[in-house]
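Dear Dr. L.,

I hope this message finds you well. Following up on our conversation about the binding site, I have prepared a predicted three-dimensional model of the protein together with FE2/S2 (inorganic) cluster. For your records, I am including the exact sequence and ligand specification that went into the calculation, followed by the structure tokens. Please feel free to forward this to your student if that is useful.
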Amino acid sequence: MSFSNKLNASTTGSKRPISLVLQTLHKWLGLILGLQLFIWIVTGLTFNLIDEPFLDANQYRTAEKASSISTALAPTASLLQIYQAEGIIELKLTSVLGRAVYTLTTTQQTRWVWADSLEPLSLTNAEILTLAKESYSGPGELSTPQILNRETPFDASGPVVMLTASDEVGTRIYIDTASGTVLAHQNRQSDLKDLLFMLHFMDYSPDNGISFNHLLVQLVSIGALFLGLSGIYILGHKFHQGQLSLPFLRRKTAIGKLALYTQDAQPLAEFTDLNGTYLESINQGQERLRTQCGGGGRCGLCKLRFVEKPPAPNDYDLDKLTATELTQGIRLSCQHEASPSKLALVTKAQHRYWPQSEH
Ligand code: FES
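The resulting structure of the complex is given below.
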């Protein structure tokens, strides 16, 4: 784009150059993804540093014992007949507290019935407590069962009850009342493990389960792709505009004189060691022109007027300077490589800030 076209673009509205919009997006994406990266590192390191048994939810859980069934079993024909219409998949014989149980799975649901009476399985609080005690080998006393009214992460078919143990890790035992199955043991240490997993896998939605392909992971992946692509574009664009300020890429300008004037066209200073940008050459050894962004093209405080032959404005000039300033030859001195030339201050504030000893 030619200078006049660029100037027209900057005067036709408040549109920012695309490269600056991309840079802003790039920075925010970098911040957000960088934060998640930091969380990955910290949680991954924590998993490595903490002994696995410390995070174990099952330190007081006993292995299930097979119990012998002594009661007579009721014939299954009537049971199968009742649910035949649902499409029977499987009928299994199991046991709860030594009493035989039929587990009938149809295409619609799974049901548990006592195998001696074909009555639906139901458990008293005392039986639930016994089940919990059978699964627990710790030193604590178990509380009475408490029905949970909230959602749980367990695959339960009926209401879930919780019993807590008065041990040093605060063991909690969860039981499915529909099947008499001990669903899980948890404790304060396994809660820490769950928290670390949640942070590590970005699993911030409780019903998500641990999955590598949930929406947030997809969004972060797309964001990371965009971060990389925008970074490549910005790098290429900066190369193209000569804005890269890597020390080994910066060429020292030819020896010559940079003459600086006040805004009233009075001689102010001369510089012969022209190294880097105009701003860097002027501020060598001492800050003479005030900046807030340190040469990043963001504050606009370093603007100077080229008395003759102003360079073509770059994106930062177009973003920070008005069309009038651009046509007057004003540019951001932090954005252009210094060469022998004549420049003038633009504002009285710049003149006031100039070191008194150099007036
Ligand atoms: S130093 Fe801030 S814009 Fe140049």
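In brief: The chain has a mean pLDDT of 88.

With kind regards,
A. P.
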